[in-house]
Description:
The chain is mainly α and 383 residues long. 76% of the residues lie in helices and 3% in strands. It has a three-stranded antiparallel beta sheet. Helix 1 runs antiparallel to helix 2. The chain is rod-shaped, with a radius of gyration of 39 Å. Residues 201-242 and 374-383 have low confidence and may be disordered.
Amino acid sequence: xxxxxxxxxxxxxxxxxxxxxxxxxxxxxxxxxxxxxxxxxxxxxxxxxxxxxxxxxxxxxxxxxxxxxxxxxxxxxxxxxxxxxxxxxxxxxxxxxxxxxxxxxxxxxxxxxxxxxxxxxxxxxxxxxxxxxxxxxxxxxxxxxxxxxxxxxxxxxxxxxxxxxxxxxxxxxxxxxxxxxxxxxxxxxxxxxxxxxxxxxxxxxxxxxxxxxxxxxxxxxxxxxxxxxxxxxxxxxxxxxxxxxxxxxxxxxxxxxxxxxxxxxxxxxxxxxxxxxxxxxxxxxxxxxxxxxxxxxxxxxxxxxxxxxxxxxxxxxxxxxxxxxxxxxxxxxxxxxxxxxxxxxxxxxxxxxxxxxxxxxxxxxxxxxxxxxxxxxxxxxxx
Length: 383
């Protein structure tokens, strides 16, 4: 046998990069999940547009799935990865301290009892590796369900007559109509103001005045009503009495136009908000589905690493079992392991695991710090 297999973690540098990438993906998924949970749509139309109820229902389902990420799945992932590395680092530190103490006492010639103690300490470490590999496998199953649901949400929200895109087109049409109507009301207000101003001035200077507005047209409230006529660039009013009546008529038209303008402006503001919400929703659910692919691959890579470490440390167990068997048998032909080499490997592995655990602890701090700084975009002051 000679050399016992190494206990050192495999490719620590590469695994640090993998873990950092995992945390980055996790925080991005969190951001887009929160965006989905906080997206709401409303309608100013009564009855609502044909797409509204179905789209709102589909959005409600997407919100439930996003809340599952923020409330259940992400905490589970964070408590397993990178916590698993932190835990194995702590367990490795305690277990190998005991192993090194025994090896230091053996002087490269351990007894059966001493090897049995080393085996127990090592199996305690290996048991944790096996447990974490199972936990990660379970997480993959939970995440797969979330990934499938998010994909269904994307399909429901972005295809068909009740999609986000259909709603955006409808909202944009309403915005265009409101914008045109607002322009029309502004023109009406400008015209009415000009007539009122010109009519008022006309009363003081012989009942006609030149104004900088052409094409105001004529207004008449019926048979015998006063008439304000535009001739060229001038407004003509028949008398002071008629002038007052004309002013009151245009003042009424001005008030109506102003009220319509206020109403249109309020509706435009609501439609623009809804269009913005739809845009945010579309971006968030699309990004979420894309990031889920990255997270799925990240979990596969992490699970593969744990499986590799389980295989590697199982080889160590096999070597220790063979060493114990060789001593029990008393057969001088069986090659004894190099216990000094094994002791040196443990010391190196101990440092590597401690370094990896320290890095994992930093990554976990990053995640929890971001979690604690999340702002409710609907109520920023509450955060």
